From TrEMBL:
Domain named PglD N-terminal: residues: 3-79
Protein name: Putative acetyltransferase
SUPFAM superfamilies: Trimeric LpxA-like enzymes (SSF51161)
Signal peptide coordinates: none
Binding-site positions, acetyl-CoA: 145
Transferase listed as a keyword: yes
Organism of origin: Pelodictyon phaeoclathratiforme (strain DSM 5477 / BU-1)
Gene3D superfamilies xrefs: 3.40.50.20, Hexapeptide repeat proteins
GO MF, one example: transferase activity
Keywords, ordered alphabetically: Transferase
Pfam families cross-referenced by the UniProt entry: PglD_N (PF17836)
Binding site for substrate: 69
Family: Belongs to the transferase hexapeptide repeat family.
Amino acid sequence: MERILIVGAGGHGRSVAESIELRGNFQIAGFIDDSYPEKKQVWDYPVLGAVEDISVFSDRAESLVVAIGNNRVRKALFGKAKASGFMLPSIIHPAAFVSSRAVIGEGCCIMAGAVVGTEAVLGSGCVVNVNASADHHCRLEDFAHLGVGVQLAGGVIVGDSAWLQAGSSAGYGVVVPDEANVLPCIGLLKDCVTCKV
């Protein structure tokens, strides 16, 4: 069975680990996290070292997932992992629904209860968190992040590294700019021009 490393041993990393366990298509080789050496184990898995040492662990696993919620950090570590020769599979919880006509980039994390609709497109390194949904023809650019319970109507475009926090929503065809930070429970009814960080 192919081995995988998980970068990030916090809440998101552990949730991704459970998704991997439930899917059963990878053997978890361990975590990489900056809490090392204070933290040396999560459940039955070792914490092997700090994130700056990603390239050192290329002999431990063929694949790697960057399970860190912060978009900028995830993007930087994604690039480092790719340069180190790791494969970056997308991790999809078995209780998520992803349309067979959706396009999912590499290294995405789609969590329990999430929905990705018909002909939606996710770039690389995106997160669709628990119970979030991206309806038909939505487009998430690289490293976009839908927080818990975010709801996107059809045709929404979420820019590179944008973050819609828990419970927020966007109406049909709304465009959310790159690196936007949409606060929890905000409803966007038109293009978001004032939410850029």
